[in-house]
Amino acid sequence: MTLPAILFLRAHPKQFYVAAPYSLPIAHARKGWLFPQGFCSLFVLFLTAAPVKECHQEVVFCVGNKRGDIRMNIVTHEDRPREMWRAEVETRMQIAAANGAAELCIFEQWVGPGAGAPTHSHPVEEVLTVIAGKAEMWIEDRRAGLTAGQSLIIPAHRKHGFRNVGSGTLHIHAVLASPIFEASFDGAAEPVKRWTS
Fold this sequence. Notes:
By secondary structure, this protein is mostly beta strands. The protein contains one helix and 17 strands. The chain starts with a strand and ends with a strand. Mean pLDDT is about 75; it is low at about 1-65.
């Protein structure tokens, strides 16, 4: 007796390595199929009743083109340099496209009293977390004070900014949903892009 089975395979956002030890008379399921990113398929398989009871499928995340080829990219934050972004604002990029990130960037900023980030926007979502100090943050015309242990979620394309309203250094931790930092500042002709390679 032959039974139809429908198998959905979707390899997104990461690539999947598929090892399928089936005994199939029609579908050629062989070890080593690598589906490209974003690929989506529908397979109709015809299986005999006996192999169906024993078959199993193994799906393993991988980087590269061989099973088990997983690259571990470890970044030591203290080894990353600090750079002066503007007066009284130091930035240390921890994770970005420059050191192998594909989906986000993570950075820290140390901001002197009265300084901060002028009104700007990003094409992606951002999360700002206060590690130490006191900040005033805004999105469009709404403002709030944040202290250590609080975060602000900023939707994509919303104008926002912050400044240090305390007497000491404001320490900020930021996560941006893009491996490249891109910001459009009010009055600037072109977006600012940083840490692209």
